[in-house]
Design the sequence.
């Protein structure tokens, strides 16, 4: 009951943002929702199934390029987002069948390298994608304010759908099976869970919304290039967000995304030339001192200590 | 003509491969012994290159001599990183260790960017050793010397692991940490030494590479990804595997560049990596090392 109330409150707050604040805050809020989509998506494979996936950047970039190419060729914007998500999902399904039998370090590296390969491929397919020169997406014919709100609400819907699917999956046999795989894959297989199908499904789920968000991003910023959308940091960020709030939890990723964006913006503003380094320090700090997440800290105990 | 071209490309590949082997040997050592993917490795190589560059510009020390200097600097950096930070999570799951070295790399690489800027530097030797010509095949002697030195260092690492006290201790900790500790081996110290040795190899390779490639903090990912590919190619955790993998990668890139154009050399090696991971994740040699 209490969590439901908090959730309702947060949703109302998020819906109020475009009414009560300026475009800068709306932009930040859109970004936060996008980050939470990344984090929730990563949570399917990384949190529930426990596979260290670094593939977020490839799903994002692929979705961005698929959506952008659709839009350039006259497909309506919303349909382009759906196509972006689907392209990423199909790609993840095939890729998952190929690399999900790898464990630990090998899986991490394979998923990491995929983004590099995609980047190189898109970079060299200059005829279709514009290569390193990037791709311009047609600008919407509407006012700046209206545009900001349109994109905000669109991202809100995407995030809500992602959250709903996460909640649905985590309560179903699929979610349960994934948690079993996380604990002991061989034992999970022994009890009749088809681990390959489960893992691949989780991988695909983690791709579809990220890809949709990628296509969304392309329409939002009107210009993408391979260096930007296949940026390795895109793969790291969701992991940091989830680590902040403890892996596997349902709303953890959302809170983590908000917290992360706050810190990122803080670092950006104060350390322009060193923000990546500060981000690195943040990651180090988190991993060393709070490996189970900020939510795992017992705040009452902590406060008592401070007060005394 | 065709035969000459073939051998020329082959020689180019082997020369490059020797240097790759040196980069990958340290990476493979850390991965094999500590079970940590050291994302910092590429940045270590770049630091080695910078040390050699500035030693040459300000002190006039030839890069092949500053291999030692770069090695010592990087050993100290590596030892301290491991002893101070990474040792805390050494037995943690992949996600934790990988995120940690990622974070450290973001920090270190960004620091390099701030200090040295992203501009490419090129070390031009005042009196290069010239070019060797044999049956229509050209080999710059500097590159050849760098390759020989790199292979020598890799062999030296092999010897250290096989025959020295510290090397035996490293292998012992790799095989069974508890048992090694009971035999009086200080595991934390050994971990730090191992990481330091990995960094040393990276730094020495960087010093040699400074004669050949332009230097900039942004090329670190390139070296890192090569180390990945080689480790998977040669099989994880053995110096011999790194050597074979390095030479193979050098040759593959060389021929791939000839056939598909040099801009695709990276893509080829990455595709090779993914295919290998799918079909043969134990590498060409197919055995585990250090045991």
Sequence:
């Amino acid at each position: 009951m209490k969590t439901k109330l908090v959730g309702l409150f947060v949703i109302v707050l998020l819906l109020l943002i475009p009414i009560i604040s300026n475009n800068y805050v709306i932009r930040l809020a859109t970004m936060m929702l996008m980050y939470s989509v990344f984090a929730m998506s990563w949570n399917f494979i990384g949190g529930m199934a426990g596979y260290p996936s670094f593939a977020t950047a490839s799903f994002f970039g692929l979705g961005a390029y698929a959506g952008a190419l659709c839009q350039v060729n006259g497909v309506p914007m919303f349909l382009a987002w759906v196509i972006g998500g689907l392209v990423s999902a199909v790609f993840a399904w095939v890729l998952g069948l190929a690399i999900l039998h790898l464990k630990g370090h090998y899986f991490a590296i394979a998923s990491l390298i995929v983004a590099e390969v995609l980047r190189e491929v898109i970079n060299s397919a200059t005829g279709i994608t514009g290569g390193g020169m990037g791709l311009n997406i047609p600008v919407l014919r509407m006012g700046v304010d209206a545009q900001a709100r349109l994109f905000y609400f669109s991202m809100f819907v995407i995030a809500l759908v992602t959250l709903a699917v996460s909640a649905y999956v985590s309560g179903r046999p699929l979610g349960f099976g994934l948690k079993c795989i996380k604990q002991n894959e061989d034992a999970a297989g022994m009890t009749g869970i088809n681990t390959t199908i489960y893992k691949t499904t989780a991988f695909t789920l983690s791709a579809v919304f990220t890809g949709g968000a990628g296509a969304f991003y392309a329409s939002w910023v009107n210009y993408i290039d391979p260096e930007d959308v296949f940026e390795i940091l895109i793969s790291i960020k969701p992991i940091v967000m989830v680590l902040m709030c403890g892996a596997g939890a349902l709303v953890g990723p959302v809170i983590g995304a908000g917290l992360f964006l706050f810190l990122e913006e803080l670092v950006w503003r104060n350390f322009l030339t060193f923000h990546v380094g500060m981000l690195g320090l943040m990651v180090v700090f988190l991993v060393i001192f709070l490996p189970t997440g900020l939510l795992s800290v017992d705040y009452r105990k902590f406060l008592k200590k401070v007060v005394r | 003509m065709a035969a000459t071209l073939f051998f020329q490309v082959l020689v180019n590949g082997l020369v490059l491969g020797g240097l790759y082997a040196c980069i990958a040997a340290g990476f493979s050592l850390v991965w094999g012994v500590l079970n940590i993917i050291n994302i910092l490795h590429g940045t270590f190589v770049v630091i080695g290159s910078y040390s050699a560059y500035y030693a040459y510009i300000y002190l006039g020390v030839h890069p092949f001599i500053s291999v030692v200097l770069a090695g010592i600097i990087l050993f100290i950096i590596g030892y301290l990183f491991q002893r101070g930070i990474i040792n805390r999570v050494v037995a943690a799951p992949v996600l934790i260790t990988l995120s940690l070295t990622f974070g450290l790399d973001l920090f270190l690489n960004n620091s390099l960017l701030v200090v040295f800027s992203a501009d490419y530097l090129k070390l031009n030797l005042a009196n290069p050793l010239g070019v060797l010509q044999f049956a229509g095949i050209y080999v710059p002697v500097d590159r050849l010397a760098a390759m020989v030195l790199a292979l020598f260092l890799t062999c030296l690492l092999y010897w250290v692991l096989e025959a020295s006290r510290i090397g035996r201790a490293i292998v012992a900790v790799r095989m069974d940490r508890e048992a090694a500790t009971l035999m009086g081996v200080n595991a934390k110290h050994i971990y730090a030494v191992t990481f330091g040795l990995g960094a040393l190899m990276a730094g020495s390779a960087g010093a040699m590479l400074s004669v050949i490639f332009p230097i900039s903090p942004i090329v670190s990912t390139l070296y890192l990804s090569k180390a990945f590919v080689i480790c998977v190619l040669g099989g994880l955790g053995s110096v011999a595997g790194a050597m074979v993998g390095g030479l193979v990668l050098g040759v593959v890139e060389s021929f791939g560049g000839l056939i598909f154009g040099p801009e695709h050399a990276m893509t080829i090696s990455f595709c090779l990596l993914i295919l290998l991971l799918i079909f043969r994740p134990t590498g060409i040699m197919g055995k585990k090392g250090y045991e």
Notes: The mean pLDDT of chain A is 84. The radius of gyration of chain A is 19 Å. The longest strand of chain A covers residues 135-136.
